[in-house]
Amino acid sequence: MTVLVTGGAGYIGSHTARLLTELGREVVALDTLERGYRDSLGDLDLVVGDVADERLVAKTCRKYDVDSVIHFAAYKAVGESVSEPLRYYKNNVSSSIALVETLMANGVNKFVFSSSAAVYGTPDSSPVNEDAPLRPQSPYAQTKTDIEHFLRSCDAIGLRSVSLRYFNAAGAHDSGDMGEDFSLAANLVPVIMRVLFGGQEQLEIFGDDYPTPDGTCVRDYVHVSDLADAHVKALDYLATGGKSLACNVGTGQGTSVRQLVEMTESVTSRSLPHEVVGRRPGDPAAVYADPTLIRAVLGWRATRDLREIIASAYRWHERHPEGYAR
Ligand code: UD1
To answer: What is the chain's mean pLDDT, rounded?
Structure first.
């Protein structure tokens, strides 16, 4: 019995695949390597290809005796999704539908989906729980919402799924040998690391006039290894007959951009050059999770704090200044 991890060579996928292996589970990764790195997987089995390739997926399911899937493979850049909607809908929506079709045809009916807190758009208030209305504000967020709805419809044909709505994934593996590629990411922690290691001159803080305690935006940063653990718990939940579910994966703790800057300076003993600039369009003031559901149903809670997020990301970049080899 093997877990198929699509997008397994990506940031969260590789951490999850590694955790599963550490726990003694059989794992096979499927990744196009368009944005993933073979090196992130060590000696774990990797099939290079696309989730929409019916023959390849069917063959992989048979060869590895796949019985459940964690589906990470998708594009995730909000700005890019606005300028390239076709690519996003094709890769994130059409390909996911094709994947589910092939899985069902091959008797695989347990599915964990990499969703996002972006499905809530700008919530009316935080902490946000799963009953909040879904109001995606970008093509990227819409593709995640669409697949969540599609998965719920597939209950009728015997699919059972857990959609995990990640808040802000950050940090790196404890070993210092796996982490995030900061070259393309526009997210806060990778940008901070780029300032410390990658030659970006300074961090631009997008606005300090929000209605938050220090005026900068508040988010819920979750350590990538805690996120990986949420996937394992979701698989176990499905394996023991759990019903389809969508739940938040967040700490419940809000952190402002300024607090993150201060934490970075404290953890690294380096000063982080920064400047406040104008707001980034579309940024909600404060978004953090109500993690009650995931605690109750999956027995998951975050075990690593902000300090560990920064320390682990820093360790990874310090040890691997060039990231993974291409
Ligand atoms: C973004 C996406 C979200 C996606 C998530 C994880 C948007 C509107 N939302 O969330 O859909 O699921 O990433 O990939 O793009 N910040 C700065 N300076 C920077 C970068 C960020 O001040 O150079 C601030 C932002 O204003 C924000 C916070 O840091 O308040 C976090 O930003 P980011 O890491 O991009 O995550 P989100 O915007 O929360």
So the answer is: 96
